[in-house]
Amino acid sequence: MGHSPIGTDNSVDGRRNIDIGNAGVSDTKVIANVLGGDISAFEIIMRRYNQRLFRVARSILKNDADAEDALQEAYIKAYQKLNQYGEKGSFPGWLTRIVVNEALAKKRELSAKMKRISSSDAYTVETATESIGSDDMILPDQLAHGHALRRLIESAIDSLPDEFRTVFVLRIVEQMTIRETADALGLEANTVKTRQHRALKRLRAQLDDMYQLQINDSFGFDGARCDRLVAGVLSRIRSG
């Protein structure tokens, strides 16, 4: 006998209006409904963990599009293997391990692809630039816009070594416990603590350097502003 579906069917096309934000619906209940044939209930799982799992994949791949691809594949595998979970350990940890494995596989695939491209005569600077993507670079004038600080921090996190970056994202950004992080990444708890400490130390140094560069460029007076003032002064002198 199947489990009762979550949500109510009040739409014209038969799709249920699922209360995605209902924190009272446990993972166990959602999983039971999915396994009972309510495929649409899997949406609750995705929306509940999208941000955390995207950040995990992004910490490994350092590219939004690649992280999204890896996350999508991880969700497909999680759905296919959902009957294997069996409430052994933390469900978020189980999902995280799948995402980590998928992101690492994606990283190996991309690395192999780049090696093939770099050995080809068709490889150009333009090709390399396209593979990096303009979103991965911060230009000085972008620091004047609303998302500047966030981009600055993201850039600093991206600069961390791989083994530090993922631990930092899980522990500091997602605020997972040391044990959850260790289980998700297959590490010892002491290793997680050490990598977290070193990541924070490197990040502070990196941000200090970035901030200093921006402070040195503060209150700039050049370009059109400089030209306008010079022209105005000279005009007044000549007319005086």
Brief overview, please?
The protein has ten helices and no strands. The chain is mainly α and 240 residues long.
Task: Determine the N-to-C terminus distance.
Answer: 96 Å
Taken in chain order, the helices and strands follow as: HHHHHHHHHH
Shape descriptor: elongated
Strand content: under 5%
Arithmetic mean pLDDT: 76
Q: What is the number of helices? A: 10
Using the CA coordinates, give the radius of gyration: 25 Å
Give the full name of the CATH homologous superfamily of the largest domain: RNA polymerase sigma factor, region 2, helix turn helix motif
CATH topology of the largest domain: Rna Polymerase Sigma Factor, Chain: A
Count of extended strands = 0
Unreliably modeled segments? 8-17, 121-146
- Structural domains: how many: 2
Q: What is the CATH top level name of the largest domain?
A: Mainly Alpha
Proportion in helices: 55-70%
User: How would you characterize the largest beta sheet?
Assistant: none
CATH architecture annotation name of the largest domain: Orthogonal Bundle
What structural class do you assign from the helix and strand content? Answer: mainly alpha
